[in-house]
Amino acid sequence: MRFGGMDRPENDEGGGVWAVSKVSITVISGSREKLQFAAMMASVAAVSAYEVTVFLSMNALPHFLVSAPRSAPAEGEIGRLIEEKNVPEFVGLFEQAAELGDAKIHPCSMAVDILAIGKDDLLPFLAEPMGLTKFLTAAEGGQCWSF
Amino acid sequence: MGEPKIIDARGTYCPGPLMELIANIKQADIGDELEVLSTDEGSAKDIPEWIRKVGHELVGTRQVENVWHVVIRKAK
């Protein structure tokens, strides 16, 4: 059985470290620091047996357009240093979260409508647009983080 | 048992070394050993924690000058 990117042991009934844990992440900021930390959280959780759902909205979503530059404006010193040093780029980390850890990364359907964009305008590792009601259902009973 | 596969993640920052390990461990066979080289001390501590959580085997860690060597055996 696939389990947050890992193979769940046979005969495991969900106890111990293999209990299903959910991490849900809303990303609304377009700042480099917040996008970076959200990506770190999503990627590490996804490869650590958590079921990860990411919801991209507001100023975060334009950074996931195919046409967007692979950088985001920094808020402060750490954000500037991230670009200078060999820190994994946030888009690449989100992609690894999806590909290595089976994270579901959804654009907010409202933001998609406002931007008047279609599936082909978004990076290919994104899942289908999602509404808030469905996100809240997905997040129920798990950890929820917002950036 | 052959020599561990070296994953040279020196110079990259968290969570780069961990993600490079995971990309490689998916391609490895059960029983294979992988050795991550990292200059990021946080990753040297995080990788053993990840191994414990997901059920692989930590063979050992050592620091040689400014490089951490973390050796993992794929267990499943």
What descriptors fit this protein?
heterodimer; A: 147 residues; alpha/beta; Hypothetical Protein Ychn, Chain: A; four-stranded parallel sheet; 6 strands; B: 76 residues; alpha+beta; Translation Initiation Factor IF3; four-stranded mixed sheet; 2 helices
Low-confidence stretches of chain A: 1-18
Under CATH, the homologous superfamily of chain A reads DsrEFH-like
Mean pLDDT metric of chain B = 95
Strand content of chain A: 15-25%
- Sketch the major β-sheet of chain B: 4 strands, mixed
Number of strands of chain B: 4
Radius of gyration of chain A, in angstroms, nearest whole number: 16 Å
Numbering strands along the chain, what is their spatial order in the largest sheet of chain B? 1-2-4-3
SS element count, helices of chain B: 2
**Pairing-aware structural class of the strands and helices of chain A?**
alpha/beta
Q: In CATH terms, what is the architecture of chain B?
A: 2-Layer Sandwich
Strand residues, percent of chain B = 25-35%
Q: N-to-C SSE series of chain B?
A: EHEHEE
Number of domains of chain A: 1
Count of discrete structural domains of chain B = 1
DSSP, total strands of chain A? 6
Q: How does CATH name the architecture of chain A? A: 3-Layer(aba) Sandwich
Low-confidence stretches of chain B: none
Instruction: Assign a percent range to the helix content of chain B.
Output: 25-40%
Biggest sheet, spatial arrangement of strands of chain A? 5-4-3-6
Helix/strand layout:
The complex is a heterodimer of chains A (147) and B (76).
Chain A: E1 2-3, E2 6-7, E3 21-27, H1 32-46, E4 50-56, H2 77-84, H3 90-101, E5 104-107, H4 109-115, H5 132-139, E6 143-146
Helix pairs in contact in A: 1-3
Chain B: E1 5-8, H1 16-25, E2 33-38, H2 41-54, E3 57-64, E4 67-73
Describe this structure in words.
The complex is a heterodimer of chains A (147) and B (76). With 147 residues, chain A is of the alpha/beta class. Chain A contains 5 helices and 6 strands; from the N terminus they run βββαβααβααβ. Chain A has one domain: Hypothetical Protein Ychn, Chain: A (3-Layer(aba) Sandwich), CATH 3.40.1260.10. The N and C termini of chain A lie far apart (31 Å). Chain B has one domain: 2-Layer Sandwich (Translation Initiation Factor IF3), CATH 3.30.110.40. In chain B, strand 3 (57-64) and strand 4 (67-73) form a beta hairpin. In chain B, 32% of the residues are buried. Classes of the chains: A alpha/beta (147), B alpha+beta (76). Chains A and B meet through strand 2, helix 1 and helix 3 of A and helix 1 and helix 2 of B.
